[in-house]
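Example record

The entry below shows one chain as it appears in the dataset: sequence first, then C-alpha cells.
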Amino acid sequence: MKIGFIGTGKITSSIIYGIFKSKLKISKIYISPRNKSTANKLSKKFKTVKIAKNNQEIIDNSSLIFLAVTPIVGLKILNKLKFISNKKIISFIATISLANLKKLTKNKNVVKAIPLPPIEIKKGPIVVCPPNKVAKSFFSHLGSVIEVKSEKVCNKFWTTSALMAPFYELLKVSADWLTRNGVNQSKATNYITELFLGLSQDAVNKKSTGLKKLVGESQTLKGLNEQSLKELQRGKFYSKLNKTLNNIHTRLNKVK
C-alpha cells in the first residue's frame, strides 16, 4: 500500500515512526515538502519515505491520503487539489467538518481520526468517525481504535484530547518544583515521568473498577493525597478544568 501525508508536522512524524515499529506493510510513504526539517529527517531515516514535489503528487501516487494540516491551511489548499473519487481520505483536522471536507475534496470517501503523539510508540486511543474498515485496519496496528458513528460524539473525544498540553504542563510544574527544592533536574524529570506512567498504567489495568474508586483508594484519612485533592478542589482546579472542556466543546460544535 502507498500512503501520503499532506502536512508534515508532529503527528505525521509520530505516525510514520509508529508505522516502522508495526507490522503494517507500506511500500511507499509520500510526504509534503513544506516542513523541510521534519521532511528531510524522515526521508533520511526511512528509505520508504519520499518527499513529494507538491501536494498533488502525494494525492496522485497514494491510495490512502492523510490530511495533517492546520484548519487555516486546509481551507486554503484543499479545494485547489484534485482528489480522484476512489481515493480514501483520513482527516486529522479538528475544526473542518466531514460535510465541508467532502465538499472541499469533492470526495465522499472521507473520515476523521484523532491520533495523538503516543502513536509513535503504538500507544493511546485513536478515534475514527464514522466507522471505516480501511481506517480501522490501519490504525489497529498503531493503538487502540475507538469507532464512533456521530461527529458530535467525535467532537467530545476531540475535546478531551486537548488535555495533552495541560498534562505535560502538570508534569513540568511538578518536576520544576522538585528542582527548585534541590533535586537534580534529571532525577526530578525521571521521577515525575515514571510516577505518572505508573499511575496511568495502573488506571488502565483497573479501568473496569472505575476511576472514582481509584480516586478513593489513593487517599488515606488526613493523609497527603487527601490534603492535595481537597486543596485543589477548594481552589476550583477541577471546576476550571471542566469549564475549559466545555469551552473547547462549544468551539468544536460551531465548526461548519
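Notes for this example: The two ends are 32 Å apart (CA to CA). The domain at 2-149 is CATH 3.40.50.720 (Rossmann fold).
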